[in-house]
Amino acid sequence: MVRASELGRQALRVNPARADHLVATRAAVSVVVPLLVVVWLGRLDWAPWVSFGALTSLYGRTVLDRDRFGQQLWAGASLCAAVVSGVLISGLPHVEWWVVVLGSVVSFAGSLLGDAVRWHPPGPLFMLFGLAVCASTGVGASRAPVALLVCASTVAFSLVVGQVGAAVGGRLGRPRIPRPHFTRALTPEDALRHLLRFVLATSLAGTIATLVGGTHPYWAMVAACAALGGPDLAARLVRGVHRVIGTLVGLVLAAAVLGVHPRGVWLVVVIAALQWVTEVLVGRNYALACVFITPLALSMGQLAHEVPVNALIVDRGWETLLGAAVAILVLLAIPSNRTSITRQ
């Protein structure tokens, strides 16, 4: 059993800074440059593919330059696969149910691969999010080759940005590409628990949100997935609570930001600023980071397809509550006997 005092201590802890501004700068540059290109070309329909490719820059924040390249390469390839998978099913009828099914599979596979190659941040959150968002665009499977090209190009740009510091500092060397070690990541017993947790939590959250009639049911799936990413039960429970508290506070900020209706270049500038602050805070306290993750995610969505802000705010709030609650119930029902090798 997890003690309430331990949960409270972890929830309130603010970790010390660890050169977070460098990671934040890499992430902001990786996002803002491709998005400015998209705006300049007048191809806002490419924005989701660019945005998720740019998330490659978030990986490898705690390792050396050569190891960062390897982690980012694996993560970037996984993000491209998720984006293309989403585009391939985007034209299917009842696509929300396809997202529930494939999203659960991606959650488990991404979590297992993440543990096997030890990428950081751990877990399949961005892969699930990429699949779901790209599936909701409705562009159809014929756009898959373009989506792959755009996403892969953004991944390549992020890889270059990730090595600029090493090149300037004279540390550039041959990159180390980690080989997946699935048996090291999880024993068969742990893999079964992993499968049950991720598939059950994400599919149940997505199913309930879809049946209730949520306009973005995948937000519930993402919230559930986010709560499963900690290294142990206490961290996972705290992460779920952090997700809810940070999101609810972040919705106030999102209403203020989106209420002025920034568009084009100005919206890209807002996204870059929110991305920078998020990466400065995410390693210190997840609740604080979620305050800025919330308007960041909603702003990215508005860049590609603008929708009424009030409805967006309401849906984000209750679907996040739903996903986090489902994840916490699943975690308590299916405990783990082993601490994940990944670390926050």
Describe this structure in words.
The protein is mainly alpha-helical. The protein has one domain (19-169, 182-333). It has helices at residues 4-12, 20-41, 47-54, 65-89, 95-117, 125-136, 144-162, 164-168, 182-185, 188-212, 218-227, 233-259, 264-281, 286-304, 309-333. Helix 4 packs parallel to helix 6, helix 5 (95-117) runs antiparallel to helix 6 and helix 10 (188-212) runs antiparallel to helix 11. Residues 338-344 have low confidence and may be disordered.
- Tally of separate domains: 1
Please, what is the average pLDDT? 87
The global form is globular
Query: What percentage of the residues does DSSP assign to strands (E)?
Result: under 5%
How many DSSP helices? 15
Keyword list:
globular; mainly alpha; 344 residues; 73% helix; 15 helices; disordered C terminus
Any chance you could write out the topology, listing elements then pairs?
Elements: H1 4-12, H2 20-41, H3 47-54, H4 65-89, H5 95-117, H6 125-136, H7 144-162, H8 164-168, H9 182-185, H10 188-212, H11 218-227, H12 233-259, H13 264-281, H14 286-304, H15 309-333
